[in-house]
């Protein structure tokens, strides 16, 4: 291994090593400091991506750790080591690092170069000849930057690094390290002396090595250092120094807060203890109090957990725990009994193979060992041999309890009650489960009697004297499987076991406790409820905690899941616990909890839990594997994006949580837990903004999100101008179609006009001229008749013929000119009805329903013709006495009904091939998109019904109908018999 220059220049004058190591088994049980082996250690070996042989470490303002060494520069977020900036450096052997609050990273190398890295860009300050290697950086509160080189101290003036001062007091020596004290004094350590520059001073004053060490430790003394030291020291929050040596990391503790003049307690943690390498080459304390150690083979992390481990002998296995009336913790196992008060005290007189322990009502302790049933009152041990009925059992004692009447209850496969030297087995004869179910838990009830927990969802309540047993099973709602732990309340008992937590209250439904995160309790071995309402459950995967406020809401609505805090090995939880001995969770004084695992015991003080208040800063690393500049343009056709992001959660990175969202895609935040990448597909062109926030292990969220705005460029056919071009083309096509339609309509209209003129000429030259001649002859004949009656008939016929000829002339005029103005449809129908029914004796009536509306001239002609045709049919065929024409002017429809009281329709009359009149009615009705029906009337006669859409026949809406008419629709014909 190649050592850096600053480590080769070790201090030869340091004092000899006083303590090489400390045997923790001989240490006090409750020291004023936490031994290094009780810190939570985590290794990041080089085989898993960590840099090897790191010489320098620092932490930036966002919380990221930076590592530098012979392999380059690395940024660490707690999960990934990112070495992407190494190519910016002029020399790979990094020896000093400093991150300043403005986001700048200063890098010093072995050749003397100092590189400034900001916003991903590097600016190199070349080292002068003979300047020496850069050993360390420092920054005073006023923002002044200092660089310690092997030949002196340099200050950055904003442009370049200048030597400061030009001369030094005393003989010139190599500088080995430097630092800035809280009062902003700059200290330098040389081989045999030290230098101090007071705040605002322009020169250094000569000081001793002892002065330097006292300033470094923060109190007088503390001269001791390892003679094999390789790295600068780091001070933890207990005032202990962590030093890197060639044998591992050494922790030096001067207990108390007074002068560090007494010999220190020295602990060494090396490769045999789990360190990634044989030597510790750099040590740093981050802002959360975690210690980071660099070795030739990786990076190591040391941090305090939330639990305080109890110092037990290494061969302790499956300890049983209890507290006495003095709040001393008692731990009993196969290797003996230990009491933890001010110091740890062993009780060899209690024997070994202890597998159950319980606290008596008076605060003394009961336990079973190879000597029998023990009673310990804190000063002496009383032993009572166990009867053969118990000692002959092949299994160990599962639980103990003392009833209020002084009897002792012992759980083997069944319940045994020992009172006044005699023992009795309690089973089916006493109303309890038989040998088929094992007794696993005993708890003293809050009022009187005891609770007993068995296999197969079975709980029993019994009196102290073994009478009045009550058994509760699955029929009572119990569903935790094997019952392994109980916690009594005045209104019932908490029950936990193989799966789940329930509250049993006799006479009421059993309640089940569910956690909001979906986590389920498996193999619950301990449960307790604190006086203020907090609930704690120890299970196979950790310790679960439900606050009193959440429990109050659960008592009001037990069907709703509750949020729960979870502690596991990453918090210092001692580990998995088998179902025996029970319980694995007990309460101490002041709300303190004690938790037992198969191999250890730890304490937890809920009132002083360590909580990380640091707000994590989320960072977007890149898109599709590459960094992306803000407001960048992505190539056209980009539809899939993979965002990578992170946040520096260093203590427990597995508990970091992230939320992200993408504008135009996500309506709200997506909570994805510890996932550090997001994928989006089928993205359309346009502007987007990706945002991400992070939370640390204690749920503290980022103050503001990290944002990345970008734009996906469109293909030419996805652009706005292309859409406008398409719209313009569509408009042009529509206009062309419109012009073509006008041309077609013009042609059709011209042909129609020409046809109208031809028909008009032919009608005038043939029909009208012939009719005019007939009228002349009829007039002569009428004038020659003497019979008045016949003359009257001929006169009437002449009037009808003259009217028909007048209408014919008008039709010829209409064929050549525009339609006539609209007249009153009702008035015209009345006139036509009177004329048609004259001299028939048939009474005709025209009725109106609604307000009369003007009718278009074309529609009026057809409607008049339709009504006349229907009235003529009544006159010819109905033999009716009256006919009624009912016209209803509606908003949406015009309805006309022609009804009579005649003989009714002859079957098949409306479908005869030569029924031209009704056929014409149907065609005229269809011309206006209407409907025509004819059928029997009520009670007699015939009723014909015509309905036409208002938009087609009303004069105000006639124009709209013309636009709906297709150009190829054949011209309407005027139909008549």
Give your account of this protein's structure.
The protein is an alpha+beta fold and 977 residues long. The chain contains 11 helices and 65 strands. A hairpin with a 4-residue loop joins strand 4 and strand 5. Helix 5 runs antiparallel to helix 6 and helix 8 (857-878) runs antiparallel to helix 9. The chain is elongated, with a radius of gyration of 53 Å.
Brief synopsis:
With about 1000 residues, the protein is of the alpha+beta class. It contains eleven helices and 65 strands.
Could you name the key traits of this structure?
alpha+beta; elongated; five-stranded mixed sheet
Total beta-strand segments? 65
pLDDT below 50 for ≥5 consecutive residues: which ranges?
Answer: 1-31, 957-977
Q: CA-to-CA gap between the ends? A: 122 Å
Please state the CA-atom Rg, rounded to the nearest Å: 53 Å
Overall pLDDT: 85
Placed side by side, the strands forming the largest sheet appear as 54-60-59-56-57
Question: What's the SSE blueprint?
Answer:
Blueprint: H1 5-8, E1 40-45, E2 56-59, E3 65-69, E4 72-76, E5 81-82, E6 94-99, E7 105-109, E8 114-118, E9 121-125, E10 134-139, E11 145-149, E12 152-156, E13 161-164, E14 175-180, E15 186-190, E16 194-197, E17 205-207, H2 209-217, E18 234-235, E19 241-245, E20 248-253, E21 265-269, E22 282-285, E23 291-295, E24 298-303, E25 308-309, E26 320-323, E27 329-333, E28 336-340, E29 344-346, E30 356-359, E31 365-369, E32 372-376, E33 381-384, H3 388-391, E34 399-402, E35 408-411, E36 415-419, E37 422-426, E38 439-444, E39 450-454, E40 458-462, E41 470-472, E42 483-489, E43 492-497, E44 501-504, E45 511-513, E46 526-529, E47 535-539, E48 542-546, H4 548-556, E49 565-567, E50 585-587, E51 593-596, E52 601-604, E53 619-623, E54 632-634, E55 641-646, E56 657-662, E57 670-673, E58 677-680, E59 686-695, E60 706-712, H5 720-784, H6 788-816, H7 825-836, E61 843-849, H8 857-878, E62 882-889, E63 893-900, H9 916-927, E64 931-936, E65 942-949, H10 950-953, H11 958-964
Parallel strand pairs: 54-60, 61-62
Antiparallel strand pairs: 1-24, 2-3, 3-4, 4-5, 6-7, 7-8, 8-9, 10-11, 11-12, 12-13, 14-15, 15-16, 16-17, 18-19, 19-20, 20-21, 22-23, 23-24, 25-52, 26-27, 27-28, 28-29, 30-31, 31-32, 32-33, 34-35, 35-36, 36-37, 38-39, 39-40, 40-41, 42-43, 43-44, 44-45, 46-47, 47-48, 48-49, 50-51, 51-52, 53-55, ...
């Amino acid at each position: 291994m190649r050592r850096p220059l600053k480590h080769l220049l070790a201090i030869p004058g340091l004092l000899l090593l006083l303590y090489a190591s400390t045997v923790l088994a001989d240490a006090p049980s409750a020291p004023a400091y936490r031994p290094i082996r009780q810190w939570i250690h985590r290794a990041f070996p080089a085989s898993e991506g960590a840099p090897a042989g790191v010489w320098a470490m620092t932490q930036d303002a966002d919380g990221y750790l930076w590592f530098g060494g012979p392999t380059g520069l690395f940024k660490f977020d707690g999960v990934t080591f990112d070495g992407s900036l190494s190519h910016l450096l002029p020399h790979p052997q990094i020896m000093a690092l400093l991150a300043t609050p403005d986001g700048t990273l200063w890098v010093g190398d072995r050749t003397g170069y100092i590189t400034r890295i900001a916003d991903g860009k590097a600016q190199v300050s070349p080292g002068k000849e003979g300047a020496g290697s850069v050993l360390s950086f420092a920054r005073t509160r006023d923002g002044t930057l200092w660089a310690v080189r092997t030949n002196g101290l340099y200050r950055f003036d904003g442009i370049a690094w200048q030597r400061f001062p030009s001369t030094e007091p005393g003989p010139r020596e190599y500088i080995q390290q430097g630092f800035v004290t809280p009062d902003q004094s700059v200290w330098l350590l040389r081989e045999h002396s030290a230098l101090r520059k007071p705040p605002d001073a322009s020169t250094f004053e000569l000081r001793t090595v002892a002065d330097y060490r006292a300033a470094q430790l923060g109190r007088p003394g503390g001269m001791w250092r390892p003679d094999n030291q390789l790295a600068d020291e780091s001070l933890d929050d207990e005032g202990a120094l962590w030093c890197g040596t060639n044998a591992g990391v050494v922790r030096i503790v001067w207990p108390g807060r007074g002068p560090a003049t007494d010999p220190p307690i020295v602990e060494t943690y090396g490769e045999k203890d789990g360190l990634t390498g044989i030597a510790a080459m750099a040590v740093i304390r981050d802002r959360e109090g975690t210690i980071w150690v660099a070795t030739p083979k990786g990076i190591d992390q040391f941090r305090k957990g939330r639990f305080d481990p109890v110092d037990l002998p290494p061969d302790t296995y499956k300890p049983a725990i209890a507290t006495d009336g003095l709040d001393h913790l008692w731990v009993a196992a196969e290797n003996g009994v230990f009491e933890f008060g001010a110091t740890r005290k062993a009780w060899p007189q209690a024997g070994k193979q202890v597998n159950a322990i319980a606290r008596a009502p008076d605060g003394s302790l009961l336990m079973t060992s190879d000597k029998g049933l023990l009673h310990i009152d804190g000063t002496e041990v009383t032993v009572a041999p166990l009867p053969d009925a118990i000692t002959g059992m092949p299994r160990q004692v599962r639980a103990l309890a003392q009833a209020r009447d002084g009897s002792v209850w012992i759980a083997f496969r069944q319940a045994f009650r020992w009172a006044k030297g005699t023992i009795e087995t309690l089973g089916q004869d006493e109303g309890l489960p038989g040998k088929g179910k094992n007794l696993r838990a005993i708890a003293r009830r809050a009022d009187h009697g005891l609770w007993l927990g068995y296999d197969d969802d079975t709980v029993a309540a019994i009196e102290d004297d073994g009478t009045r047993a009550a058994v509760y099973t699955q029929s009572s709602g119990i569903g935790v499987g094997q019952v392994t732990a109980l916690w009594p309340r005045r209104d019932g008992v908490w029950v936990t076991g193989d799966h789940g937590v329930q509250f049993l209250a006799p006479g009421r439904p059993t309640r089940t406790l569910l956690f909001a995160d979906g986590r389920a309790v498996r193999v619950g071995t301990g449960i307790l409820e604190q006086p203020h309402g907090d609930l704690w459950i120890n299970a196979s995967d950790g310790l679960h905690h439900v606050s009193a406020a959440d429990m109050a809401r659960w008592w009001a609505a037990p069907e709703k899941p509750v949020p729960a805090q979870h502690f596991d090995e990453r918090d210092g939880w001692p580990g998995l616990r088998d179902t025996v001995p029970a319980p694995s969770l007990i309460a101490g004084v002041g709300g303190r909890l004690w938790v037992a695992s198969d191999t250890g015991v730890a304490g937890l003080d809920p009132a002083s839990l360590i909580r990380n208040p640091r707000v994590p800063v989320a960072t977007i690393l890149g898109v599709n594997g590459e960094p992306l500049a803000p407001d960048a343009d992505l190539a056209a056709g980009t539809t899939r994006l993979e965002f990578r992001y992170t946040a520096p959660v260093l203590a427990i990175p597995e508990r970091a949580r992230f939320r992200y969202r993408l504008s135009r895609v996500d309506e709200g935040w997506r909570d994805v837990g510890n996932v550090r990448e997001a994928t989006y597909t089928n993205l359309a062109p346009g502007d987007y903004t990706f945002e991400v926030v992070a939370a640390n292990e204690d749920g503290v969220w980022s103050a503001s999100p990290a944002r990345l705005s970008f734009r996906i460029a469109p293909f030419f056919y996805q652009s706005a101008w292309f859409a406008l071009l398409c719209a313009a083309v569509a408009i042009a096509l529509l206009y062309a179609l419109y012009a073509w339609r006008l041309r077609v309509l013009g042609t059709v209209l011209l042909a129609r006009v020409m046809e109208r003129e031809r028909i008009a000429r032919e009608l005038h030259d043939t029909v009208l001229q012939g009719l005019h001649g007939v009228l002349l002859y009829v007039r002569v004949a009428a004038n020659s008749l003497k019979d008045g009656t016949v003359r009257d008939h001929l006169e009437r016929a002449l009037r009808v013929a003259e009217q028909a000829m007048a209408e014919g002339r008008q039709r010829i005029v209409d064929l050549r000119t525009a339609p006539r103005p609209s007249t009153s449809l009702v008035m015209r129908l009345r006139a036509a009805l009177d004329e048609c029914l004259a001299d028939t004796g048939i009474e005709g009536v025209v009725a109106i329903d609604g307000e009369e509306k003007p009718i278009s001239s074309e529609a009026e002609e057809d409607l008049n013709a339709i009504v006349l045709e229907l009235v003529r049919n009544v006159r010819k065929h109905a033999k009716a006495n009256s006919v009624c024409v009912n016209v209803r002017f509606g908003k949406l429809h015009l309805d006309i009904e022609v009804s009579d009281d005649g003989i009714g329709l002859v079957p098949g009359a409306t479908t005869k091939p030569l029924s031209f009149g009704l056929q014409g009615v149907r065609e005229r009705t269809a011309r206006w998109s209407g409907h025509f029906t004819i059928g029997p009337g009520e009670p007699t006669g015939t009723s014909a019904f015509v309905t036409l859409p208002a938009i087609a026949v009303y004069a105000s809406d006639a124009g709209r109908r013309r636009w709906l008419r297709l150009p190829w629709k054949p011209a309407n014909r005027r139909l008549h018999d």
